[in-house]
Design brief:
The chain has 249 residues and is an alpha/beta fold. The protein has nine helices and seven strands. It comes from Legionella busanensis.
Length: 249
């Protein structure tokens, strides 16, 4: 059974339509979650998957974990920090998840996909709206502060950040080359269990790590303990918006 985070990513892939024998681009591939799903689905496996990330560490991990697929020419990992570096390659399907907030000129970035897509090609451009997250916590004011802090902070590996990127995505698309050939959706992710594999659990751990330096550690631990207790008593609730745009050339 898929964990919730993997389930959400599988649903993003489904928005692309058939991926069988396609030229596929995963831009901002990270540790390779989408790659794992694409390779596991033998009936719909792409012909070639380009795995692109600006992080040397992430690309090294892809090379280590998928050496066989790379040798067979099924997977092509590259460390690039801009879309233009991919020219003259063209793709039938593209997925770009949680990348846009890190980009300086976001509109130029979106428009660049027109140079990478084949005719009738499809791109999924998606982003969590971190500032929209809510937890059912007895520490209401603390929860608000923690979520806003997490959404607003620029982490060491980021050149740019925007915790409201998800909700701003439709506005950017409306000004882009794809304004008439795109569809924007908002998925409300809802979870009732605080456990590994769920996005609320992951986000809480990330919040804790970031907030340790500026919040009382004991209070932070009490906040986590409260979420765990609510989950055991079936009172836990987490929700966040995932904004999804389908771009078609």
């Amino acid at each position: 059974m898929l964990d919730r985070i993997t389930f959400y990513k599988q649903n993003l892939i489904k928005k692309l339509g058939s991926t069988k024998n396609t030229a596929f681009l995963d831009y901002g591939c990270g540790k390779g979650d989408f790659i794992k799903l694409l390779l596991a689905a033998e009936d719909t496996r792409p012909k070639t998957i380009f795995a692109i990330d600006s992080s040397k560490t992430m690309i090294q991990g892809i090379k280590k974990n998928y050496a066989k697929e790379i040798e067979l020419g099924l997977l092509v990992p590259k460390q690039y920090s801009n879309l233009a570096s991919l020219k003259p390659n063209k793709f039938d399907k593209i997925v770009c998840n949680n990348v846009l907030e890190c980009i300086d000129n976001k509109l130029d970035f979106i428009n660049e996909f027109k140079n990478l897509l084949n005719k009738n090609g499809v791109c999924i451009l998606s982003h969590y709206d971190f500032d929209s997250a809510i937890y059912n916590s007895q520490y209401k004011e603390l929860t608000r502060n923690l979520i806003h802090t997490f959404a607003d902070i620029k982490q060491s590996w980021q050149a740019h950040c925007d915790g409201q990127m998800g909700r701003k995505l439709p506005g950017l698309i409306a000004s882009s080359f794809f304004s008439k050939t795109s569809k924007c959706e908002t998925w409300r992710i809802v979870e009732y269990d605080f456990q590994p594999g769920n996005y609320g659990f992951l986000m809480a751990q990330l919040i804790f790590d970031i907030a340790e330096s500026s919040f009382n550690k004991e209070l932070l631990q009490n906040w986590l303990n409260d979420l765990e207790l609510k989950s055991k008593n079936r009172h836990y609730y987490f929700a966040i918006d995932l904004n999804v745009t389908v771009l078609i050339l």
